[in-house]
Amino acid sequence: MDGSSFEVQPKEKLLLFHRLEEEDSMTTCAVYDIGNQKVSDIELDDRVFDAEVSPHLFYDVIRMHLASQRKGSAATKNRALVRGGGAKPWRQKGTGRARAGSRRSPLWRGGGTIFGPMPRDYSFSLPKKVKRAALRAALSLKRQEGKLILLNDFPMEGFKTRQVIETLRRFQIENALIVTEGKHPLLERSSHNIPKIQVLRCEVLNVYDILNHEHLILLSPTIQTIQGVLAS
C-alpha cells in the first residue's frame, strides 16, 4: 500500500447524484393569445410531451374507448321468448308427419332465433399505466407534428360563434380539439355547432378525441393539471 488514499462517497450522496442525473428535462414552448401574438413562454415536461409514440397503445386504448360507447342493446327472441307455442301442433304418432312439440320451434316459420344476439356489455378495461402511456404518446405526437397550440386564455364576449371562427382562422385551423381547465360555457356553446371543432375539459381528455382532430389547442392553465397527472 502506498500512501495515497481515496475518499469514499457516503451512500446518501451517491443517491443524490443519481437523482440529479435522472432529473427530467423541460422544453420551452411559446404561448399565444387569441390574436396569434406571442405573450409568454412555458416549460413542458418531456416525460409528457416528448414520450415514445407507440401505435399499438393507440390501437388498444381506442378499441377500449369505442367498445365502451356501444349500447349492446341488440336482442332477438329465442323459442322461450316468442309468443305462443304452448300446445302441441299434432299428436306424436299416426299422422305421417314429422313429430313436433311447439309451433315456436326455431325450425318453424315464426319460431325463435337460434344463438341470436342478446343484450350484453362490450366494454373492457385496460391497466391505468397503459391508458396514461397512450395519453402521453398522443400529446407527444401532436407536438412532434407541430399541431399543438398553447393559448393563454380564450376570452368570450358572449355566445358568439363568429368570434370562435375568427380566432381559429387567425391560426389557420379548421379541425381542432380545444381543452379547457374547467367549465367554459361561453366557449362550449359558441363552438357547439362548428363542424370539426370540439371543446373538452381536461379531466376527461382522452386519446380518441386527440387523434380524431387535426390540431390540439391547450389553454395554459391545463398544462399544470395534465403534467401533474401524467408525469407521475
Overview in brief:
The protein has about 230 residues and is α/β, with parallel strands linked by helices.
Query: Based on CA inertia axes, which overall geometry fits?
Result: elongated
What structural class should be given to the helix and strand makeup? alpha/beta
Sheet with most strands: 4 strands, parallel
Radius of gyration: 30 Å
Strand order of the largest sheet: 3-6-4-5
CATH architecture identity of the largest domain: 3-Layer(aba) Sandwich
Number of strands: 6
CATH class of the largest domain: Alpha Beta
Q: Approximately what portion of the residues adopt beta-strand conformation?
A: 5-15%
Uncertain residue segments: 11-22
**How many DSSP helices?**
8
H/E topology pattern: HEEHHHEHEHEHEH
CATH topology of the largest domain: Ribosomal Protein L4, Chain: A
Under CATH, the homologous superfamily of the largest domain reads: Ribosomal protein L4/L1
Structurally, the number of domains stands at: 2
Distance between the termini: 49 Å
Helix percent reads 25-40%
Mean pLDDT score: 89
